[in-house]
Amino acid sequence: MPRVPVHDLDSAPADSRDTLAALGSAKGRTLNVFAEMAHSPATLAAFAALEEALTAHATLSDAQRQAIRLAIAGWQDCHYCQSAYTMAGKAAGLTTEQTVELRQGSASFDPALDALVRFAVEAFAGRGHVSPSTWQGALDAGWRDDQLLEAFANVARTFLTTGFNHLVATELDVPAAPGLEQ
Fold first, then answer.
1. Among 2, 40, 57, 92, which is most exposed with the fewest C-beta within 10 angstroms?
2. What pTM does this model have?
3. Nearest 5°: phi and psi at 142?
4. What is the pLDDT of residues 60-113, one digit of tens each?
5. Are residues 43 and 111 in the same domain?
6. In 121-139, which positions are buried (b, 16+ CB within 10 angstroms) versus exposed (e)?
7. Are 154 and 68 in contact (CB under 8 A)?
8. CA–CA distances in Å: residue 117 to residues 42, 82, 124
9. Which structural domain, as residue segments, surrounds residue 45?
């Protein structure tokens, strides 16, 4: 059972309603994670602002962003995010098999993406520390340093959702990702 209410537009704090409506519209429906973030207008606004910035100024494709998110959600063992990002990854063109591999922190099907995902996982696991060889490996795979910084911002954005879901015990309202079926 979630630790905070799962709000709808009528029950959400007034300062969360516009943002909650916008996120629901963008995603096709209001997901539990956003309905719970709405309990704290500051938390919901912070997520929405980060999401908007990472979308509006993206140099990484949606599939690349979802790959990073899948890897971090897998590393964090967040069933909610693994499931939600599996849906988003498939919508961005990834196959089911690719989403499963990405949740394990690799992308053998695309060497450049593999370098980016491994960079992201090391940055997350290392709390921002990345070895010189990992950084250089990502550059050698064709990524620019600004894209690595953008990847790191996607890591931070994903920690916000994975950590939040663990914190409040978000109930799954999307199909479970392969291997996570209950």
1. 57
2. 0.95
3. 110, 0
4. 999 999 999 999 999 999 999 999 999 999 999 999 999 999 999 999 999 999
5. no
6. bbbbeeeeebeeebbebbe
7. yes
8. 30, 15, 11
9. 14-56
